[in-house]
Design a protein that fits this description.
Length: 500
């Protein structure tokens, strides 16, 4: 239920916000692309801050559930505001878009970072986490199914030809449903894994210390964004220079005595020396780029390349029904193949099938649906495996360093997912703008059709294949994971017995 609620926002923004901004709200594609990239920079700090705050929260409800409950009304509010079209000037609309989209991502951070981390403290067993992740993402796809499948119909029904009004009233319905589902999720879950408190300083002092470490997060993100958007020699040199300096500073920090490092620095170093987490970080970005590009271009693809925008909703319904089965099959297939191997197989098969879109003409609707659904069955396994394996990275940190920061591990995971989503949406708009696309000028459509073909086929497939290659280096085998879990359970039992 929690993921069904979250995906009323996530899938709605992922699938429709770009086309809403360009075709209804009236933003230029290039301006919307910059908006998506800039807002993702704010997520760099807010996700990490929220993870640290959640890890240091101690209530009778647990660490994470209070934050989910308190942030839910704000999440519903900003979802409505993002899809509201005020009668402002072009500059006023752009400013409004920035404010509301930043508000939405901030509310989503406060809600979803603790929600994602909740799975890591509901059970100690990695197989249970994989099963739980399967049910979680089945719920996510149900929420996405509702938004993607019925949003065009609801917009048309509420708007009566006025899309701006239709979007706004549709979001009222989604916001009410979101709050009911999220509150139910909070009321019916329990946090069971309780690590020993290890923080040496107050939350205020550690957050202040985090501001000193903020360049480690913001500068690499800024360099990535500039290189992504401008793709020239200067942005490339800046990218290389920033990462070289960051690497040198991290090595210097590692060589300092343990007693001289703050709690924040220890948390950051735990992550940066956690090989499973680093690989999963890259996997989260690549798989989100893969899925995000495909979902972001679908509305354009069916509206212009296929020539029937009403098929968009039907296609989303078909994809998400298949996704539910893919997510629920993940646990069974993971037991047979192992999660690492299943991840690689899913990436390869889904990417190769996606390449086939390039050769399908717009009138081959039946084949478009068959190919898309087959590729989506395997793509649905990617986020299911990713979030279950983040719990393993938290286990690895506790096993290796004696410190467990579940919220921080998952906050980085949700951040890289949102970053990948932002870059995916921006890349779609950058490619379309490169082909001369203007949502308010019908004469530009024909020239942009090849770009839509590329965005449905080879461009996302390249990210999927890169992910399969990266996953070959993941170090936690099923046997090693079982040994690590057994040691951790024994350690926790010994510590609890000592304290009693």
């Amino acid at each position: 239920m929690g993921d069904a609620a979250a995906n009323l926002v996530w899938r709605g923004a992922l699938a429709y916000l770009a086309v809403f901004y360009t075709d209804t709200f009236g933003l230029a594609a290039s301006a919307a692309a910059i908006l998506f990239l800039v807002v993702r920079l704010t997520d760099g700090m807010t996700d990490i801050i929220m993870g640290m705050i959640a890890d240091r929260t101690h209530t009778s409800w647990g660490k994470f559930r209070p934050w989910i409950f308190c942030s839910t009304p704000f999440l519903g509010l900003f979802m409505v505001l993002c899809f509201t079209t005020p009668n402002f000037s072009d500059t006023g609309k752009l400013l409004y878009a920035y404010l509301t989209y930043i508000g939405l991502t901030l509310a989503y951070t406060i809600n979803n970072v603790p929600y994602s981390a909740l799975m890591g403290v509901m059970t100690e067993d990695d197989k249970e986490r994989t099963s739980l992740s399967g049910f979680r993402f089945a719920g996510a796809f149900v929420g996405g199914l509702f938004v993607m499948g019925f949003l065009p119909t609801l917009v048309a029904w509420f708007g009566g030809g006025n899309d701006a009004k239709g979007y706004q009233y549709t979001m009222y319905v989604f916001a009410g449903l979101l709050m009911a589902l999220m509150v139910t999720s909070v009321a019916t879950t329990k946090e069971r894994v309780v690590p020993i408190k290890q923080t040496r300083n107050s939350l205020r002092s550690e957050l202040w210390d985090l501001t000193k470490q903020s360049p480690f997060v913001l500068l690499p993100l800024l360099s990535m964004t500039l290189f992504f958007y401008y793709r020239n020699v200067i942005s490339g040199l800046f990218f290389v220079l920033v990462f070289a300096i960051a690497t040198w500073l991290v090595r210097r920090m590692l060589n300092r005595p343990q007693s001289d490092k703050s709690g924040t620095q220890l948390d950051m170093l735990d992550l940066l020396t956690n090989k499973p987490w680093l690989i999963l970080l890259g996997m989260g970005f690549l798989t989100m780029m893969y899925n995000g590009i495909k979902y972001s271009v679908i509305a354009y693809y069916f509206k212009y390349f296929v020539g029937d925008s009403l098929l968009t909703g039907q296609y989303f319904i078909a994809l998400l029904v298949v996704s539910i089965f893919g997510a629920l099959c993940t646990s069974y297939l993971a037991r047979k193949l192992g999660r690492r191997n299943l991840f690689i197989v899913a990436l390869l098969l889904s990417s190769l099938l996606t390449c086939g879109f390039y050769w399908l003409p717009g009138e081959s609707v039946r084949y478009i649906f068959v190919l898309g659904c087959t590729a989506e069955f395997f793509a649905a396994m990617m986020p299911t495996l990713f979030f279950s394996m983040l719990g393993d990275a938290a286990d690895y940190s506790e096993w290796r360093n004696g410190r467990r920061a579940t919220g921080l591990v998952y906050s980085a995971g949700t951040f890289v997912q949102k970053t990948g989503n932002g870059f995916a949406g921006a890349l779609v708009l950058v490619v379309l703008a490169g082909y001369g696309y203007d949502g308010m000028d019908a004469t530009t459509i024909e020239a942009s059709l090849p770009g839509m073909q590329q965005l449905m086929s080879f461009i996302p497939a390249a990210f999927g294949l890169a992910g399969a290659l990266l996953m070959l280096f993941y170090p936690l085998t099923e046997k090693r994971q079982q040994q690590m879990n057994a040691e951790l359970i024994a350690r926790r039992s010994a510590i609890q017995s000592h304290h009693q």
